[in-house]
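Posting for a labmate who doesn't have an account.
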Amino acid sequence: MSRDTLNRLKRLQSLPMLKELKIASIKVGTRHRKDMGDLKSLAHSIREEGLLQPIGVTEKLELVFGERRLRAHKDILKKKTILARIVDVTSIIQGEYTENEVRKDFTPSERVAIAKAIERQIGNRRGQRTDKQPVQKLHKLALGKRPVIRPLKNPASATTKPIAKLPKLFRTALPD
């Protein structure tokens, strides 16, 4: 190992690796990402799952990576602090590039596989309210595609709606 590498390793060992920082103290210099994408979805994810990956800053609190996470914390979640990893990079630009380009997204087949795993874990909730249980869940039979009505596990928690408001297709499947 070179002397420079050894010095960097010694300096890194003396730094606290993770630190809760005041967002106002983080210096955001010139950044190359201009399109921040959907920060509301990111904020929702952080609210639900927590900050899975801390932002990265130098010893001088200069942002290296995690601008979207930082903005979601500050602008949407209205947080005053954020978890940061202190990193020692050769340059902020190189750190920003490496974090955003030298990684691998899911392949299409991997996206399908993880979506199926999530669906198995939490169920297919597309278009359904998750804050209230519907009166009845309508499921289609695999062969006939006719809806089948299954009672709720806890009917006392449900509200009733007139059958007339159900689509005609579903009313025909209701028992007399």
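Reply:
Got it, the structure tokens are right above this. The longest helix spans residues 108-122.
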